[in-house]
Structures are given as structure tokens and as C-alpha cells.
Amino acid sequence: MNPRRPFARWLTWCVLALPPAVAAAPFAYVPNEGSGTVSVIDTATDQVVAEIPAGAKPRGMAISSDGRTAYVSDQPNNRLVLLDLVQRRSAGAIALGESPEGVGISPDGRWVAAAVEESNDIAFVDTQAAKVAFVVTVRGKNPEHAVFSPDGRRVFVSAEEGAAVDIIDVAQRKQVAQVGVGARPRGIGFSPDGKRAYVAAENADEVSVIDTESLRVVARIAAGKRSNGIAVHPDGKRVFVSNGGDATVSVIDTVSNRVTATIPVGQRPWNMALTPDGAKLYVACGRSGSVSVIDVDKAAPVADIAVGKLPWGIAIR
User: Fold this and answer.
1) pTM of the predicted model, to two decimals?
2) How far apart are CA 101 and CA 238, in angstroms?
3) Distance between CA atoms of residues 243 and 109, nearest Å
4) How many other C-beta atoms can be found within 10 angstroms of the C-beta atom of residue 118?
5) Can you list the domains of the chain with their CATH numbers?
6) Which residues does 305 contact at the CB level (< 8 Å), separation at least 6?
7) What is the rounded CA–CA span in Å between residue 36 and residue 31?
8) Torsional sign, CA 267, 276, 63, 39
């Protein structure tokens, strides 16, 4: 008897026994602020397979490291909605301050950072206790995105009504620096090694590149009109920037710091996410009510997926 056969049968049984949301290919989750739902896209087929109610106006979104829970900011209800991604239903809510937007999660999954616009706060939620553990007030006004560095030690915050990025030391639970960037900063992304942070500046139509050790801007890269979202490829060689005014995505080569391609997408592209293998980029296109899918190696659109009203972003785990 082949000794491998019992193990193979056991492994097959384990895979078949997993819930659909765990066993399948990666899913892309799309918060639709106009319809109060999260669309679930199977990235293997690029089809919407479910819609999950997610409050009145879902915007920022982060997914737990095990892929089972989503944390979604519900802006008018001033709360963080928890979604069970296996059962695809609500799993509770956590009160935040007034008008929460961007949501980020630490690499170890311990902390969720939510940008709270009206009070200029970043609320840190302990995911184990399911409650706000501490709040850091930042200097910049109207924080939009709160993004953890790859080592989880710092959170970079874009100040929408300023021209700066506020930097929080998580262990110290306080702001430790501020870096000037282009006007109306929006999306933030880190190189895989954490040495560079890329910040889209919407009113400057550019991307600021921050050296995360010296905390200085080392390059400013012209992008398209109303540059907004940022996604960094896992290989660190490419950065993608959504241009809300041009209905395009720019591709930046990180060695030359130059745009090497411009890709047409739907209207008002906003936030984006890459599949874990870096093969496809998913772009939320608010005014089109759709998600544009880009083949990364070809730098070309391959699909346009209808979702809910006013999709704000994408999360893939």
C-alpha cells in the first residue's frame, strides 16, 4: 500500500471540509458607500458572489490575518462594523468618534487603526478585546488613511486638509513626527522592506516618496489628475496610483521614480488592492459603480465588474 495515499485522502477531506470563504481563491471585498454593502468578488472568476450589509456608508476596510473578519468604518454611524467573512454577516460593532474613514490593520493582526476625521484622531482597536484601547490625536486636520508600516511599529496618517503625513509610534502611543508632502494627501503604501512610503497628493497630482528612516521626502513623482489611491507590488518594483480626474492608473517604476505606463479604468478610480501573488490589481471606480481589473504584467485592463453604488476601496487577504 502506498503510504502517501492515507495522507492525501486526509488532506483532500480537510480542504473539502473548510467553509467556502476559507477554501476558495482569494476574495476581493468592496465597500460600497452608496448602497451600504460590501461586494464579494471571487478573484478566480472575477464574479460577484455575495453582498454583505455593512452599515449606512461603509468606507475604510481591513481584514484580519486569518481572513475571517473584516473591520469596516461606517461613517455616519460613527462606528467600526465587524463582518464575519465565513458566514458573510454582521458580527457586531465598535463605537468610534465622529466620521471614521480609512482603516488599517497591523501585520500581526493585533491592532486596527481607524482615522476619525472630525476629531483628528486615530482610534486603535484591540482586536482581541474588540474595543478601542487608546486614541492618538494627530496634528494634521481631517485624517483619511491610517496605514501600518510593514514592521507594525508605526502608523502613517494622511491629513486630507493639510499637506502632511503624521507619524505615530504604536508602542509609545503618540505622534512622533510629521512630514510635509503635496497638497491633500490621500492613499499611502509602503515598499515591502519598509524603507519607502509612497503618498498620493490629490491636489498636487503627484506622489511623494518618503525615506522612512530619515523621514524626508526624497522624490516627487508627477502622476495623473487628482492622484488618490496607492498600491505597492509585492516585488517592490512597481507602485500603482489611481487618478480620479483622469480615469486612469499610473504605474511607477521604483528604481527610476518615473511613470512607465498609464492604464484606462472606470470613472473616479479611488482605492485599490493587489492579489497576494501580484498578478491582478483591483480598482474601485466610484462613479462607474464598478471595479476595474488590471493584468499587472500586461499593464492592461482585463475586466470590469459591476458592484454596489459608489465603491470606495478594495481589501484582499
Assistant:
1) 0.92
2) 26
3) 30
4) 12
5) 28-316 (2.130.10.10)
6) 41, 46, 47, 48, 290, 291, 292, 293
7) 8
8) positive
Read off the C-alpha cell for 160. Answer: 486630507
Cell of 151: 514592521
Report angle CA 197, 281, 102 to the nearest 5 degrees.
50
List per-block mean pLDDT (blocks of 10 residues) for the chain, which spans 317 residues: 45 42 75 98 97 97 96 98 97 96 97 97 97 97 97 97 95 98 97 98 98 98 98 98 98 98 98 98 98 98 98 95
| Number of alpha carbons in the 13 Å side-chain half-sphere of residue 136 | 28
For 110-132, write each residue's pLDDT tens digit: 999 999 999 999 999 999 999 99
Choose among 216, 211, 253, 248: nearest CA to 232.
Answer: 253
C-alpha cell at 195: 524603507
- Per residue in 201-214, pLDDT tens? 999 999 999 999 99
CA–CA gap between residue 144 and residue 125 (Å, rounded): 17
Sequence-distant (6+) residues with CB within 8 A of 2 are: none
